[in-house]
Design brief:
Elements lengths: L9 E4 L5 H7 L5 E5 L9 H10 L4 E4 L13 H14 L4 E4 L2 E4 L2 E7 L5 H18 L3 E4 L14 H12 L2 E5 H11 L3 H6 L6 E7 L2 E2 L4 E2 L8 H10 L7 E5 L7 H20 L1
Parallel strand pairs: 1-2, 1-12, 2-3, 3-4, 4-7, 7-8, 8-9, 9-12
Antiparallel strand pairs: 5-6, 10-11
Helix pairs in contact: 4-5
């Protein structure tokens, strides 16, 4: 059952590098996205900082450790701590990645791509249903930037992604930079990807910078958004219900003011697109 998803505007990933600037000036940012795992603690500075942010801004949770496609059982201790955090943040939805990263007794702390097969779809769908029901809020999976493919793949990434979210009755957290990065690494046409998206399932969009090495592209989140990605955003965003947009910047940090200026380019695109 689809739920009413609020449109929060333009947001930024909340990073400790910018805490001093944020707490001293309280900039007019629409919302912040946090990495859930950074705040899944009982107290201390992380929670103190988060509570300050929550007094002034909406906060959305985005995770990196769920590893939903992993072959080990769901980690119920992790999920209970995750749900506890949602009660504090009142996040309107929660997202993580369509990936694997665990084996029984081991956690690789990486976002590893899944084989695009019917068997994997069935497996992820059942787990996604359980997770969304347990969390009691809309749950979304993000597409990866990938660098390898499996010889057992039975379909395209977009077919795999779409079938999972539709059958599980969950949502897409669509990273348009990841679409571009993967298109370069796997030589597919981004138009084929975006043509097949179920736009009513997209509840948020990610933007980020990447590193172009010619023969391959790395999703580094350490630079300005490339023109090719902005152009892709301009094609995707108008087909959604004006969903929330988030700029990620995770290395080689620049000032908060300059980071926010980069995020605000999305608002300029939105105004131009809505006036067409």
């Amino acid at each position: 059952m689809k739920r009413e998803i609020p449109s929060l505007g333009i947001g930024l990933g909340l990073r400790p590098f910018h805490f001093d600037e944020i707490f001293s000036s309280w900039p007019e940012v629409d919302w912040f996205e946090i990495i859930s795992e950074n705040f899944m603690v009982d107290g201390g500075k992380p929670i103190s900082h988060l509570e300050k942010i929550l007094e002034r801004y909406p906060v959305v949770q985005h995770g990196v450790n769920l590893a939903i496609g992993s072959p080990d059982p769901l980690d119920w201790d992790y999920l209970h701590r995750l749900k506890k955090l949602t009660k504090l943040t009142k996040t309107p939805w929660l997202s993580d990645h369509l990936c694997w990263g665990r084996l029984p007794g081991a956690h690789y702390h990486d976002l590893l791509p899944l084989p695009y097969t019917k068997e994997v779809i069935n497996y992820v769908v059942e787990r996604a249903k359980i997770i969304q029901d347990f969390l009691e809020i809309p749950f979304a999976l993000e597409n990866l930037s990938s660098y390898v493919a499996y010889i057992d793949d039975e379909m395209s990434e977009w077919e795999f992604y779409r079938e999972i979210v539709e059958r599980a009755d969950i949502y897409m957290m669509l990273d348009v930079n990841n679409i571009y990065v993967s298109s370069r690494n796997h030589s597919f046409d981004v138009e084929d990807y975006i043509r097949q998206l179920p736009y009513d399932r997209i509840l948020q969009i990610h933007l980020a910078g990447h590193s172009d090495h010619g023969d391959y592209v790395l999703d580094t989140h350490d630079n300005y958004v490339r023109d090719e990605v902005w152009n892709l955003y301009a094609k995707v965003w108008p087909k959604t219900k004006q969903v929330s947009t988030l700029l990620e910047w995770d290395d080689n940090f620049i000032s908060f003011e300059e980071t926010w200026k980069e995020a605000l380019k999305a608002k300029k695109f939105q105004k131009e697109l809505l006036n067409v």
